[in-house]
Amino acid sequence: MQYTKNIPRVMSILKKESPRFVTPALTKISEQAKDPFKVLISCILSLRTKDVVTAEASRRLYAMANTPEEMVRLSTKQIEKAIYPVGFYRTKAKRIKEICQRLIKEFNSKVPDDFDVLLTFKGVGRKTANIVMTYGFSKSGYLAIDIHCHRVPNRLGWIKTKTPEHSEEALKKILPKKYWRDFNNIFVQFGQNICRPVGPRCGACPVSKYCKYYKEVYLPKKSVFREHINSGLKK
Ligand code: SF4
């Protein structure tokens, strides 16, 4: 409770700060393409992959094919070549082919706007399904949690969880629904630029005074370091 009371303040500060950060690749693709199919495919490409690589791989793939029918005509090798070097590019190329085949055969070439049905596709997990529902179909009531959205609220002291799946569950209980849509976008930007996985930039953080990690880890470490320097100077 101590830290969750800061949620409205932190959300408002991070939303204001967000224009100064680079827009995440998936957000850009969703805004530009306004196509659930591309949101789905780019989200699969983005798993375990840097943003800049996702953006380039998506651009190369969509230059060759824009729809399930066009994409299914590409060989797995052609897809592999287009999306390399995204993480697990061989498996992802195979999954993309399978997804396109299923979309054509069972869904009239349309991505189903049903969270549970999306989860039945191989290679689609909760994060991807939530992203497609939120940014592909503009549906409310979905909370897409990736590794940044899992790590940052844990550092802020809002939740105490071990996996993104548990974070989704825990955040849904404490985060007012009005924040759900923008949450992924804002926290991915913030996690990529300030609250980085290794070496968070706490000294430059606009929400440090509301942060558990800052108070309980960063400041004590800094004061130990200062004492160490001072004792060295006195010798
Ligand atoms: S103070 Fe540090 S740990 Fe806390 S949110 Fe900011 S960057 Fe992350």
Short description:
The protein has 235 residues and is mainly α.
Q: Could you characterize what this model shows?
A:
- The protein has 235 residues and is mainly α.
- 64% of the residues lie in helices and 0% in strands.
- It has helices at 7-17, 25-33, 36-46, 51-64, 68-72, 76-83, 89-107, 115-118, 126-136, 147-156, 164-174, 180-193, 212-234.
- Iron/sulfur cluster is lined by residues 155-156, 194-195, 200-202, 205, 207-208, 211, 213-214, 218.
The N- and C-terminal alpha carbons lie at a distance of 45 Å
- Which hetero compounds are present in the coordinates? iron/sulfur cluster
Number of helices: 13
CATH class term of the largest domain: Mainly Alpha
Descriptive tags:
mainly alpha, Endonuclease III, domain 1, 235 residues, binds iron/sulfur cluster
Helix-strand layout with pairing:
Elements: H1 7-17, H2 25-33, H3 36-46, H4 51-64, H5 68-72, H6 76-83, H7 89-107, H8 115-118, H9 126-136, H10 147-156, H11 164-174, H12 180-193, H13 212-234
Helix pairs in contact: 2-3, 3-4, 3-9, 6-7, 10-11, 10-12
The structure holds iron/sulfur cluster (SF4).
Residues 155-156, 194-195, 200-202, 205, 207-208, 211, 213-214, 218 line the site of iron/sulfur cluster.
